[in-house]
Design a protein that fits this description.
The structure is a homodimer. Chain A is an alpha/beta fold and about 350 residues long. Helices cover about 30% and strands about 25% of the residues of chain A.
Chain lengths: ~350, ~350
């Protein structure tokens, strides 16, 4: 398995978790679950034993490079790639792909966001190993699809024919269609029909498959990074990257490649997963009391309180009475109290 | 006016304002209004110009003596009297009265709690001066009565015949009756009839009047402090006080003297007053926004929030959304969120 590489994408700014996260410290760098490890540390730990540490890469923004070095000291410093500006996921993945190709032209790659939560690590690893084996042997672009537990409108969906399988496919299925975030009614239908999965944003492919896809569907982006092949790994790399980045199109890998490519497959996962996109989804990942309340940080007493989440950092004790469906979040001396139902407005409160 | 003395009672524990106040730092020692001065400092300042500082006395619990010295450095250290244990207001006032008599047998005394709020200082001082003049010339026990603004059930009421007045009386009226805290219906009647006032707990009398009243109505308490006359002001005082205190009856001045004495008068006050007995009464003393929200401490943004109070100490910023009639209080890293309507339960939350 020495060809197995991992790319952790860690450039997001996570403004939805303010005041915990902000542009200085996005959520992937926070111990948001109160486990003693940050989300990016949990992400790396999830691949322990299936991808060797010397094959791990992180793509992040320049301003977070130091945070990545501090939090993942075991990752080779030369494998921490810095983007001078945010250009969505396609340029990020294209850069990492060419950079890895220089080091290992036969690399097989998993691309994973740094801020997801997957508690069942053995199930996750089994799923990854099946997908990696498949992508190593084929030209398949593989995504991890999550069995929906409810008609979520916050995720894109993947339509697949899940009825046909064979041992050759390692439990992997051909994708019929990617859909954007549906409205409530469509989401309801998707969940009922049973052949729709949530698009997790975790991808598995070999380096030549993805580079060929970039050449076909995003030739400009691909050429920009191909031209730099001679200087990857040298002290000229960062300056050259700086020069090209602001000229690149800002586009997601989903739009740029996945929705256009022919050989796209999905590996359905049955384990619980969360992209921690909202306070509500974080509450779902935490242990709750009989009334649905969760607390991370200071010891918290709940009185006549329901479906609320208390997340504190510098506070030492919290007593809450009479709240229903609320977020109480404190970080570095800033306190937010907000209805969970209004959490999409948090970015306006900064 | 050199006979004018002031006794500030500062032994209360104020558990209703937890987590701001606790047994270590009761509310009289806190800047609860966010003015830069603690309640006891505001109390002393209220008498500036009408009672000389060398005639100011403070009675407090042993554990708060250092706090009083720190917060009122201008008060003579020998005038800070320490109670070894809490015995309600009668022993406290009796001790101060005998102690003052030793220093000035013709003293005229104002007794005031340390945790009240009176914003209109000129009106308060005019009222005090009238009452002090009256008590200096007569054997009258005078209390300050507050014109009720609403049918409050949390206060005792004083019934007086407010129809008769004369210039000799300095705007002071004879008390018909003291009543305990009434139920809502009786409080309503009291406010309607117009001859009931709130019992403020501020008293004015000359030292011989109150000592004679103690001799008649509480002879045991009075004798205990009279016996110590020779050692007041010596280094034996504190040890002697320690010996007698635990044998004294724990009783309020209202029960012990005011409800029994004959010559009891009331000085009606028209200025706003609060004993800051509840979070609700504190909110009424603060500037509020158009929706009835008040904040002390960190800059606070209110969104869709009504009739709430945010009181913070170590926090640096607060954003609140969707609260109605709530207390948000933080002190030394302890955060309380509680409905104002449930604030009587706060002492159970410690």
């Amino acid at each position: 398995m020495t060809n197995q590489h991992l790319v952790i994408m860690a450039g997001g700014i996570g403004s939805r978790f303010w005041p915990l996260s902000d542009e200085k410290t996005p959520k992937q760098f926070l111990d948001i679950l109160g486990t003693g490890r940050t989300l990016i540390q949990l992400t790396l730990a999830r691949f322990e034993g299936i991808i060797p540490i010397e094959n791990v890469w992180v793509v992040t923004s320049e301003e977070y490079t130091d945070l990545v070095r501090q939090q993942l000291p075991e990752v080779l410093p030369s494998h921490i790639l810095s983007e001078p500006e945010r250009r969505n996921t396609a340029p990020c993945i294209c850069y990492a792909s060419w950079r890895i190709k220089k080091e290992n032209p036969r690399a097989n790659i998993v691309v994973a966001p740094s801020d997801h939560i997957i508690a069942d690590i053995p199930a996750f690893q089994a799923c990854m190993e099946g997908a990696m084996e498949f992508s190593a042997e084929t030209d398949a672009i593989v995504t991890l699809g999550i069995r929906p537990t409810h008609p979520e409108t916050g995720y894109g969906y993947i339509k697949a024919d899940l009825s046909y399988s064979s041992s050759r496919l390692h439990g992997i299925f051909r994708v019929d269609e990617f859909t954007e975030k549906p409205d409530a009614e469509r989401a309801e239908t998707f969940v009922k029909t049973g052949n729709y999965l949530w698009n997790s944003g975790i991808f598995i492919w070999n380096v030549n498959t993805i580079i060929n896809a970039f050449r076909v569907y995003c030739p400009k982006i691909s050429q920009a990074f191909e031209r730099m092949m001679p200087i990857y790994g040298t002290d000229k790399e960062q300056a050259a990257i700086k020069q090209v980045y602001d000229k690149l199109e800002s586009i997601s890998i989903d739009y740029a490649i996945l929705e256009k490519a022919e050989e796209v497959f999905v590996c359905p996962a049955n384990f619980p997963w969360s992209d921690l996109g909202t306070w509500g989804s974080l509450r779902n990942q935490l242990s709750t009391d009989a009334y649905g309340n969760a607390a991370v940080g200071a010891p918290t007493d709940f009185h006549e309180t329901h479906h609320s989440i208390v997340h504190t950092q510098t506070l030492q004790r919290v007593v809450v009475q009479g709240l229903d469906g609320c977020i109480v979040a404190e970080h570095n001396g800033t306190l937010l109290i907000c209805k969970l139902s209004e959490e999409q407005r948090i970015r306006l409160f900064h």
